[in-house]
Amino acid sequence: MYDDNEDRPEDSGGAGGGAEGGEGRVRPTGWRMPLVIALVAGVVAYLVIDRVYGGIPMLPWSAIPTLLLLAAAEVIAAVQTRRRIRRMPGTVPIEPLSAARLVALAKASVLFAAVAAGGFAGMLAALLDRLHAVDARTDAFTAGGTLLSALVLLAAALFLEYSCRVPGDEDPHGPRTT
Known about the structure:
The chain has helices at residues 32-52, 63-85, 96-127, 134-163. With 178 residues, it is mostly helical. The longest helix is centred in the middle third of the chain and has 32 residues, at 96-127. The radius of gyration is 21 Å and the shape is elongated.
């Protein structure tokens, strides 16, 4: 126990805190952090694209299927993980370390998808004034498709994180993930 006047040592337990704070607990991703990241990425992308658009190569369309494939893989992993955590018939229980790795993947994917969505939204906003040019129109179409793909990845990552929650183990401060 710590007295309120004593200095507390730094938490070494990661995001969940020490033994008193629920060691091994990971809080679900909220909506504020991805939103702030997307807004910052959007503003930066808008400013950069607005200033240097003529000097950069055309935007490749290959990010669209890449993000959609990542989202599909995360949805498949989420469905299988959810079934295994709930111990559905015909499944093998998931190892806690595997579930923790999937939560880490989901949290990283949420942050990446927020950066991508914000960045491509900013790019799309910067290109709206230039739609009269064929190259800018093509880049705007590609940026819009990539923005939608990033949003699909964001939803898939949040679903994967949700699927890793242990049922019936409610915490007064919010749901628990593995």
